[in-house]
Amino acid sequence: xxxxxxxxxxxxxxxxxxxxxxxxxxxxxxxxxxxxxxxxxxxxxxxxxxxxxxxxxxxxxxxxxxxxxxxxxxxxxxxxxxxxxxxxxxxxxxxxxxxxxxxxxxxxxxxxxxxxxxxxxxxxxxxxxxxxxxxxxxxxxxx
Length: 143
Prior knowledge:
- This protein is mostly helical and 143 residues long.
- It has a domain at 5-71: Helix-loop-helix DNA-binding domain (MYOD Basic-Helix-Loop-Helix Domain, subunit B).
- It is 38% helix and 0% strand.
- The protein has helices at residues 5-37, 49-70.
- The longest helix has 33 residues, at 5-37.
């Protein structure tokens, strides 16, 4: 085929480099998609891949716990997995913004039922508050 072995090696290396660039781009695109679906606090800079995975694990565990604690509750009788807090509890409002920092994109995991009103008329639900995994004291903050 008229090509010297050196030219063949160069072409093979270029093809391998192109495949690796495409592979890394696919991974980076997948992480961007994951970051867009995880509620986060407004960080100063974009989360690393490791921090993104840690937050995703924590969020999935939280959602799993919500589903687990709500199983067996009958929506027709009005019982739910919502927990009531006494009026002496100091609850804070937490706005969970989307990854892009757009103030109009947020996530809500709360709900209420008129048939299940607490004495003071306020309903409270579990809310997942993302922690900054870069400042987490333990190695695995989401167990």
